[in-house]
Amino acid sequence: MFELGEKVIYKKDLCTIKEIKKNHYHGKDYYVLESFKDPSLKIDIPTDNLGGYLRKVMTKEEAESFISQIPGIDPIEVDERNLGYEYQSLLNTNNSGDLIRIIKTTYLKSREREKKNKKPSDRDQEYLEKAQNYLYNELSVSLNLSYEECKDYVLSRIEQTVE
After folding, report:
1. Which residue of 8, 45, 82, 118 sits 20 to 30 Å from the alpha carbon of 60, by its own alpha carbon?
2. Within a domain: 2
3. Residue 83 and residue 129 in one domain
């Protein structure tokens, strides 16, 4: 059971529990969530969370442990034609390690393209931004850092794996 005012992850988005409605619909209790990126967006979700879409934000210890594991997380190894499908599949898992795989893959690909004086591909940039938003918003709450500080922290760990 979650508490009023608690920060949670709904699917992949950071939200705050703004209200708990009793016997709201079909006699079920519901959480009213407010999206972090769009406070005007309110989401009602049953408190029994049978779909498993609602979870607690990582604790500081969990976040630090996760970040320490980044060097051991491999980038995506798939044919270029299937990369978009793989990116989308990994985004849908609601797994932080999969978000790192996307970030690491797009980071490495962008570095290679820059060496050839090419800009990163639009597809890579699109999935990089999505993965970063999902991950860094959660880490910023867990670690009490800004979004940019989380981004720098994670990228520094990724850079350690490629040097």
Report:
1. 45
2. no
3. yes
Q: Same domain for 74 and 144? A: yes
pLDDT at res. 84 = 93
61 pLDDT above the threshold of 90: yes
How many domains does the chain fold into?
A: 2
Query: Could you tell me if 73 and 143 lie in one domain?
Result: yes
Residue 160 to residue 41: CA distance in whole angstroms: 38
Exposed, middle or buried by CB within 10 Å (0-12, 13-18, 19+), for 163? exposed
Nearest-angstrom CA–CA distance, 104 and 70: 9
Query: Is residue 68 pLDDT above 70, yes or no?
Result: yes
Same domain, 73 and 43: no
Same domain, 101 and 150: yes
Write the pLDDT tens digit of every residue in 75-111.
Answer: 999 999 999 999 999 999 888 999 999 999 999 999 9
Q: Are 32 and 21 in contact (CB under 8 A)?
A: yes
Structural domain that includes position 22: 7-56
pLDDT per residue as tens digits for the range 104-147: 999 999 999 999 999 999 999 999 999 999 999 999 999 999 99
Quick one: which of 96, 51, 40 has its CA closest to 73? 96
